[in-house]
Structure formats: structure tokens, C-alpha cells
């Protein structure tokens, strides 16, 4: 009996031990099966993650400039200013609302037929959203119809012919450059008054003829008498016959409208025009031309820009950054114009959150004010001409400069120099 009980107890213990092993084994299998799905499910979790956002299309700007030809210096100044303007306006990011800004520069060679070809390439091949340019009024007038045909905004800089925002204007044209009438108001304010006799000298193309026409209108309103108009070949290097005709007209003043490296200043001095009682007045040109104007110290006129004239933080930034980027050189006559064009485009894009739809941009830019190295500028809604400050100046020799410097007489306000609406 005892043996039977022992056997029974031993059997029960054995059975209990077997059950423990079986349960343990089942428990181990269950754990493995439960862990296995979590391993296979992890890729499913990764698949649920949001896909990365595709990069936004870049904003493309085509810049037309005279990088060769008579206006080469002006073209290079404009391009330098434009690049700095993009950096300034975007805070160095070169993007707006996540869209990178790219720009392509094309040389018009200061030839209208080349300007048309290069603009067409920018619009058709590069698919630009904006066109900026150009250095020559002739080049610019040739390209204006393309802006309308392709329905793209053209920001005109630095061409000044009145007809650009006058008879040849279309709604896609915005101009940060001043126009001939603004120059004329400034020039006339410096010399024109009742009974004063004035002769003019200008290159024989749209820039020169529009400039003289606008000056005449402003000067006559102030009581002056225009006694002679002289137009010279834009590519001329000898102005002897032109200057002789002016001397023979015996004006009190000679008002000169000129652009380009082939300026008449040396011959005006050589022919002793001022010693014959004829005072010279003009818009003070770029630094290279100012260096040829030693004989004109004391002349009163106006200027679009000299880096010493505007007193604001943006101009200070421009001067410092230009020196740093271009081997210590200061910005020149048309450098701020390039910067103004870039700032205007970026400010418009900021307001549209990077939208480059042309109609949206037009409605945004009409009446838009923006800050520049020359102070506040505003696109007039009626003709998209930027109203801006110009400077009445006197040429003087100043310590630290090896050329006559435009010294400020007074600022001519945007309201004061606002040109007539001609479109």
C-alpha cells in the first residue's frame, strides 16, 4: 500500500513537471509569434510617413545689358547692382517663399536687333518670369513689344527715353529708371529762368531726342528760350562741327544730354566754350566721365546718383558690400539702378508669396512703394514710372577724390520731379 502511494505521488509529480514544461514551451512560442508581427509591421509604419515635399520651381529673371559696345560700362554697373539687390532684398537667401531666384544675363551689344534676339531666347528657351533691361533706350524700345506678346513683366533699367513709358508703353512695362522728363525737370530747375538763352547738345537717337524734348518743355515753362538744338552721331568721337554751331548760336548756357564713353567734354574744354561766355550744364555722369570734366569745375546741374549723396542705411549697405565684392570699388552711376530693379521684383514677389502670375504681379506692383539706395520709390499706377529722388549738384574738387565730385545743393523730391503722364 505504501509502495502504491509512493508510486502514485511520483506519477503526479512527473505529470505536474511535464505540464510546466509544456506551458513554458507554449508561452515561449506565443511570445515569438507576438514579436514577429511587430518586426514585419515596422516597414508599414514607415510607409505611412508623409512624402517629402518636391522642390518648388525656381523664379527666373532675364537681364538684358550692354556688356559690349558704347554703353558697356553702364551695362556692367547695372548687372553688379542687380546681383547685390537680390542679395539685399532676400537677406542673402536668394529665394522667396521657398522658390530659388535664378537670373541669366545676356549682352545686347547695344544693338536693337541683338536685343530682340537675346530677349526672345530668354523668353522661349530660358522661360524667364521677368525681363530686366536694358542699357540703351533703342534696345529697350525694340524689346517692349515682346513683353506684351509673351505677357511677361519687363522692369526697365536704366534706359530713360520718355517713349518707353509714353507712346510705346504697354501694361507689362514697369520702370525703376528715371525718364527723360525727370532729368529735364531737374536740369531746367538748375539753369532755366526768364530770358535765359539755352542751346542743347545730344546724341541723335531716342535717348537724346526725348531728353532734349523734355528739357525744352520744362525750360520754356520757366521762361527760357531754346536758341539751338544740336544732335551728334551717337558713335562720334569728333564733335568739332557740332560745338562750332553751338558757339555761333551764342547761348547763355549749353545743356548737354549724353551717355556713353565717347563724351564731348574734352572737346568742349579744348574749344574753350566757357571762355566764350557759354556756361555748361548737364547731368553729372559716371565716374569715368567725371574724370574728364576737370575744366567744368563749378558747373551746376543735376545727377541721378553719386555714392556720396544719399544718406540712408540701404545706400550705406550698397557702398560697403560693393567695395567688399569688387576690390574696393564704389558703386557708380547706374549701380543703384540695378539694385532698385532687383528690390522692386523681390518686394512684389514677397507680396504675392512667390506667385509669378503676371496679372497678379501687375496689380501688386501698380502703386507699390519700396525702399532703395535713393530712398522711397513708387510705381505710378497710370504708367508704371517709378517716382524718385534726383539731386541738384555743383561740381567741386573734394579732398580724397581725383575727379570733380557732384556736391549736393539740394534733393529734388519724387513729387517735384514727377514727369507728365504720356501714355
TrEMBL record:
Which Pfam families does this one have?
Peripla_BP_6 (PF13458)
Q: Which residues form the Leucine-binding protein domain?
A: 58-396
What protein family does this chain belong to? Belongs to the leucine-binding protein family.
Q: Where is this region: Disordered?
A: 31-58
Would the keyword Disulfide bond be found if you checked this record's keyword annotation?
no
Signal peptide boundaries: 1-27
The name this protein carries in UniProt is Substrate-binding domain-containing protein
- Entry keywords, A to Z: Signal
Q: Which InterPro entries match?
A: BCAA_transport (IPR051010), Leu-bd (IPR028081), Peripla_BP_I (IPR028082)
Naturally occurring in which organism (per UniProt): Litchfieldia luteola
Amino acid at each position: 500500500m505504501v509502495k502504491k502511494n509512493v508510486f502514485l505521488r511520483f506519477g503526479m509529480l512527473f505529470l505536474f513537471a511535464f505540464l510546466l514544461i509544456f506551458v513554458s514551451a507554449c508561452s515561449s512560442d506565443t511570445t515569438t509569434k507576438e514579436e514577429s508581427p511587430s518586426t514585419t509591421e515596422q516597414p508599414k509604419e514607415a510607409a505611412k510617413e508623409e512624402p517629402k515635399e518636391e522642390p518648388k520651381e525656381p523664379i527666373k529673371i532675364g537681364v538684358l545689358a550692354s556688356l559690349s559696345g558704347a554703353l558697356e560700362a553702364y551695362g556692367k554697373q547695372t548687372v553688379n547692382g542687380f546681383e547685390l539687390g537680390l542679395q539685399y532684398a532676400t537677406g542673402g537667401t536668394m529665394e522667396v517663399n521657398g522658390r530659388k531666384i535664378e537670373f541669366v544675363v545676356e549682352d545686347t551689344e547695344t544693338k536693337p536687333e541683338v536685343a530682340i534676339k537675346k530677349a526672345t531666347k530668354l523668353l522661349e528657351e530660358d522661360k524667364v518670369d521677368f525681363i530686366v533691361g536694358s542699357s540703351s533706350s533703342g534696345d529697350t524700345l525694340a524689346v517692349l513689344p515682346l513683353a506684351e506678346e509673351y505677357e511677361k513683366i519687363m522692369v526697365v533699367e536704366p534706359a530713360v527715353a520718355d517713349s518707353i513709358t509714353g507712346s510705346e508703353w504697354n501694361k507689362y512695362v514697369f520702370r525703376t529708371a528715371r525718364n527723360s522728363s525727370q532729368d529735364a525737370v531737374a536740369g531746367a530747375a538748375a539753369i532755366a529762368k526768364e530770358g535765359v538763352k539755352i542751346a542743347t547738345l545730344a546724341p541723335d537717337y531716342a535717348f537724346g531726342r526725348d531728353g532734349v524734348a523734355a528739357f525744352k518743355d520744362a525750360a520754356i515753362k520757366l521762361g527760357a528760350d531754346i536758341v539751338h538744338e544740336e544732335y551728334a552721331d551717337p558713335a562720334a568721337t569728333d564733335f568739332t562741327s557740332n560745338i562750332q554751331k553751338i558757339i555761333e548760336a551764342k547761348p547763355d548756357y549749353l545743356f548737354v544730354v549724353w551717355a556713353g564713353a565717347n563724351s564731348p567734354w574734352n572737346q568742349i574744354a579744348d574749344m574753350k566754350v566757357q571762355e566764350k561766355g557759354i556756361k555748361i550744364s548737364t547731368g553729372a555722369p559716371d565716374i569715368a566721365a567725371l574724370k574728364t570734366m576737370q575744366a567744368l569745375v563749378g558747373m551746376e546741374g543735376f545727377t541721378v546718383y553719386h555714392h556720396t549723396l544719399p544718406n540712408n542705411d540701404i545706400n550705406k549697405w550698397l557702398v560697403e558690400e560693393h567695395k567688399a565684392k569688387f576690390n574696393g570699388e564704389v558703386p557708380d552711376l547706374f549701380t543703384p539702378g540695378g539694385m532698385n530693379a532687383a528690390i522692386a521684383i523681390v518686394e512684389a514677389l514677397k507680396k504675392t508669396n512667390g506667385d509669378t502670375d503676371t496679372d497678379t504681379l501687375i496689380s501688386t506692383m501698380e502703386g507699390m512703394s519700396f525702399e532703395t539706395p535713393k530712398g522711397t520709390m513708387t510705381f505710378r499706377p497710370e504708367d508704371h514710372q517709378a517716382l524718385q529722388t534726383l539731386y541738384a549738384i555743383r561740381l567741386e574738387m573734394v579732398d580724397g577724390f581725383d575727379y570733380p565730385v557732384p556736391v549736393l545743393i539740394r534733393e529734388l523730391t519724387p513729387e517735384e520731379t514727377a514727369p507728365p503722364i504720356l501714355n
